[in-house]
Amino acid sequence: MADIQSVGVIGAGQMGNGIAHVAALAGLPVVLVDVNPAALEKALATIAKNMDRQVAKGGLDAAAKDAALGRITTGTEMAALDACDIVIEAATEREETKLAIFKSVSALLKPEAILASNTSSIPITRLAAATDRPERFIGMHFMNPVPVMKLVEIIRGIATSEETFAAVAALAERMGKTTAVAQDYPAFIVNRVLIPMINEAVQALQEGVGDVRSIDAAMKLGANHPMGPLELGDFIGLDTCLAIMRVLHEGMGDSKYRPSPLLVKYVEAGWLGRKAGKGFYDYAVTPPKPTR
Ligand SMILES: CC(=O)CC(=O)SCCNC(=O)CCNC(=O)[C@H](O)C(C)(C)COP(=O)(O)OP(=O)(O)OC[C@H]1O[C@@H](n2cnc3c(N)ncnc32)[C@H](O)[C@@H]1OP(=O)(O)O
Ligand SMILES: NC(=O)C1=CN([C@@H]2O[C@H](COP(=O)(O)OP(=O)(O)OC[C@H]3O[C@@H](n4cnc5c(N)ncnc54)[C@H](OP(=O)(O)O)[C@@H]3O)[C@@H](O)[C@H]2O)C=CC1
Question: For 92-114, b where at least 16 C-beta lie within 10 A, e where not — what string?
């Protein structure tokens, strides 16, 4: 696969809509697939809203926005992806879900098509080994919010070919991103460092070192982070943060990565952060109100 000319995205959540957004703006036709038709509708509305924001700021003209939106089609069946040169999986961070997706989609793809995962933490070699194309399988890890964040981490599995790596690096650059290459260890680079920091903030909250407001203010004003760690956890999704901690804990075999019990409790309560309307903050009120 020398040059990628069409993109499929599986999972129309916060990451899937962002990936579709930047791919369409890069001039590529995009097929966005999700099991849930409501998620697809919401994703299209979010993409249009985020492009409007770029138009209002002068970074995009209205005609380019309309053309980009016109390049995105949606579907609830994997069969809609059969002509794509690359399919980027951005479904829920659950290994069984991803494996089931790869099994069904690889049966439909052209033999030369590339399969990429936007996983935050799951080993690429393990995911690749469960497909029919480990040499054309790769980790392509975008950051949230995708239209704003400059980085794409690229992770080769043990079998990933140089041709696949070069094609995906060129695609990331075409989407306006800068790449960093990470080795295939649990949670790669960004989340190896970032998510234990968020988990530690939750542990500090559990121990009463500070309340939500104090912990976030301390890290924003004391370490110049654009968001406090609890606000950022809510933004990423607490289910995703917990899934990453579990992959780190199991994959590194080191107790220093154990998930904070309070993080587990929030996820068990369904308080998953912004996408659920409630996490360390309650988003039903403006400004969002700390829940502890
Ligand atoms: C979990 C993983 O696997 C990996 C990850 O992604 S970890 C998470 C990584 N992400 C972060 O750490 C994000 C940290 N937060 C930030 O950088 C900032 O708070 C933020 C960029 C999200 C918002 O910044 P802000 O200054 O509070 O908001 P705001 O001024 O409204 O927006 C800044 C810019 O982003 C744009 N923007 C904000 N959210 C956007 C979105 N969802 N989509 C498109 N554009 C967006 C705004 O239009 C604005 O653009 P300009 O610079 O052109 O004016
Ligand atoms: N959130 C973040 O900051 C980042 C997340 N990631 C990674 O990106 C991926 C997606 O995360 P995110 O967008 O936040 O998650 P979301 O929960 O926002 O979205 C996941 C989407 O995938 C859908 N889905 C679940 N199962 C399937 C399936 N079998 N086929 C098709 N679609 C499916 C979900 O549908 P339903 O709601 O119906 O279950 C949902 O619409 C994860 O691997 C995550 O680790 C990577 C970088 C940053």
Answer: ebebeebeebbeebbebbeeebb
